[in-house]
Amino acid sequence: MRWSDGFIAVDWGTTNRRAYRIGAGGAVEDRLEDERGILSVPHGGFPGAVEEIRAALGELPLLMAGMVGSNRGWRDAPYVPCPAGLPELAARLQWVEPARIAIVPGVCFSDGAAADVMRGEEVQLLGAYAEGLVPADALVCHPGTHNKWVRIEDGRIAAFRTVMTGEMFSLLSRHSILSDMLGGEVAPGTAFDAGVEAGLAGGPLTGELFSVRARALLGKARREDAASYTSGLLIGTDVRAGVAAAPSEGPVYVMGRPDLTGLYAAALAAAGREAKELEGDAAFLCGARHLAELLQ
Amino acid sequence: MRWSDGFIAVDWGTTNRRAYRIGAGGAVEDRLEDERGILSVPHGGFPGAVEEIRAALGELPLLMAGMVGSNRGWRDAPYVPCPAGLPELAARLQWVEPARIAIVPGVCFSDGAAADVMRGEEVQLLGAYAEGLVPADALVCHPGTHNKWVRIEDGRIAAFRTVMTGEMFSLLSRHSILSDMLGGEVAPGTAFDAGVEAGLAGGPLTGELFSVRARALLGKARREDAASYTSGLLIGTDVRAGVAAAPSEGPVYVMGRPDLTGLYAAALAAAGREAKELEGDAAFLCGARHLAELLQ
Question: B116, A210: Cβ pair inside 8 Å?
Fold first, then answer.
């Protein structure tokens, strides 16, 4: 069984997993997507969870990335330090079964007191570069629960910073004093743009958040706009810091779920920066294919 | 039954209530404190909840402040706009029973797109001024679930801004990716000071928060320091914006629970500002007494 004859690529996160059977020619032949994220796998349950994947997609080698390689996952795959390219990842794969099951390590960044980690995004980032979708030197924004601002240099991840923008919106909408106002759909438009503008202005976020409620109480804003406004406020705050740390000209590559990349592209435009959107799942497949080529 | 013969002052918040019997001479003769905040009172239950207070403290007039006067409380007492002093509050009391049960209105601030509200703090703030504990022109910081930065001018609340610092710490420690690290006690000291320094430096809060986890993962910080560091980070961020909006010289009056005022005083010192701490419950009693005098 050789990787070039086909393999299964798995993006195994905290709450979801996506697995793809990739044929000898590199095409996706079949896929499995479910909510069997690592937190749903009981202690000792990973061999069985992997057998579910093979039962669905075939008896093939597995290349897995994401939180499955964390200390909460199946096997801890130690972080590769920046600068990290696909060759560095391939050299540090965590082999669960020789030549048959490999876990891709995450990437860490360390500089003085600064410290950061990623797991899963590295395959997408380096896959997009390997595929020619992102140039060798670029600023990439990767929104999600934890948005990453990533500096690519010479085709490797040189530095990055994580901002918990998505998680903050989730905390606010589920558990905060704003929760009864944030149930609506987040959509581009006037309210989102107003939030972006407030975020780009750089006021203190925890103060701006309270004013969402106060303005509604005093009749200065519509409650039904609160979700889009608050999303815009968080994303605008995120973009302000992200582009301040990388003031160079040129587009920002925004990679991830299309609904999120669209919102970030709008906020980047408001900040005077061009955005190029890339689909995260497609980038993951690029990264998995290029990594597998390094294993032949 | 006259107010000068004695009354009961009630600070009735969302999750707690504190009631004090104040005698003819102004001394506290008895008190009741329990967790019967407004959220625990069922629809139509306020008359009974008030009878509990009178059963414990005596058949006296009641002066009540806090969330009991909100749209989630007993009777909505509309906000008094800034500038608001004790006479403005006395003129706009919400009388539930004539001459026997009054609810103190909250205060609102509105300036262009800015909007803010308070309920309960106004009695403490104006009570401290009436008692001579705070000068006629002062900057007051009132930490709590929702910290208030308040500008007192001519003995009235002229402007204020709310920052949800305490609520943010609670959200993070209960529900976020940091929750397993924030269970420890928050205490002044090296870790708190380091967090304050990071907060005063003004980096993006949602990025600084993620780095708390990353630094622990990479062995750059001790997990047991995370609660104090994160509290310092949030308070430092809060203080940075609070003093930037009021750059004048002179002390900042910090009013509230002594554990919180101590942490804010330390952060203010790190920001180069003198802090004068005031006990919030004592200030509430001052405000209730001076308001009752206006009802004679």
Answer: yes
Q: B207: which chain A residues are within 8 Å (Cβ-Cβ)?
A: 161-164, 241
Interface test with A, best of B109, B206, B217 (most A CBs within 10 A): B206
The answer to whether A230 contacts chain B (CB < 8 Å) is no
Does the CB of A43 have a partner CB in chain B at under 8 Å? no
The yes/no answer to whether this complex scores an ipTM above 0.90 is yes
Cβ(A243)–Cβ(A199) under 8 Å? Answer: no
Min CA distance, B8 vs chain A (Å)? 29
Categorise residue A21: left if φ over 0, alpha if ψ from -120 to 50, beta otherwise: beta
Backbone phi and psi for residue A112, each to the nearest 5 degrees, phi listed first: 60, -130
Which residues of chain A make contact with B143, given a CB cutoff of 8 A?
none
Distance between CA atoms of B139 and B253, rounded to whole angstroms?
A: 6
Specify whether the CB–CB gap between B50 and B96 falls below 8 A: no
Note the pLDDT tens digit of each residue in B75-114. Answer: 999 999 999 999 999 999 999 999 899 999 999 999 998 9
Residues of A in contact with B114 (CB under 8 A): 211
Confidence (pLDDT) at B129: 98
For residues B88 and B156, is the Cβ–Cβ distance under 8 A? yes
Distance separating alpha carbons of residues B288 and B18, to the nearest angstrom: 13
Return the percentage of chain B with pLDDT > 70, whole number.
99
C-alpha distances out from residue A284 to A66, A105, A123, B269, Å: 11, 14, 6, 49
B169 has a pLDDT exceeding 70: yes
Instruction: Out of B163, B164, B217, name the one closest to residue A117 (CB).
Output: B217
Is the N-terminal amide bond of A143 cis, ω within 30° of 0?
A: no
Residue A198 pLDDT grade (very low, low, confident, very high; cuts 50, 70, 90):
very high
- Is the pLDDT score of B250 beyond 70? yes
In angstroms, what separates the C-alpha of A189 from chain B's closest C-alpha? 18
A162, containing H or E segment: strand A156-163
Residues of A in contact with B209 (CB under 8 A): 164
Closest alpha carbon to A253 in A225, A286, A278: A278
Whole-model pTM: value is 0.94
Closest CA to B162 of A4, A177, A183: A177
Give the domains, in start order, of chain B with CATH numbers.
3-45+53-134 (3.30.420.300), 163-279 (3.30.420.310)
Backbone angles phi, psi at A95, to 5 degrees: -90, 115
Q: In angstroms, what is the C-alpha Rg of chain B?
A: 20
Bridge partner residues of B156 (DSSP): B153
Task: Map tokens 């009021």 to a residue.
Answer: B246
Q: Which residues of A touch B117 (CB under 8 A)?
A: 214, 217-218
Query: How sure is the predictor about A1, in pLDDT bands with cuts at 50, 70 and 90?
Result: low
DSSP secondary structure, A181-233, as one string = G--SPP-SSHHHHHHHHHHHHT--HHHHHHHHHHHHHTTSS-GGGHHHHHHHH
B212 to chain A: closest CA residue: A115
Rg, C-alpha atoms of chain A: 20
Amino acid at A215: R
B218: contact with A, CB 8 A cutoff: yes
Q: Does B175 touch chain A (CB under 8 A)?
A: yes
For residues B60 and B54, the answer to whether their CB atoms sit within 8 Å is: yes
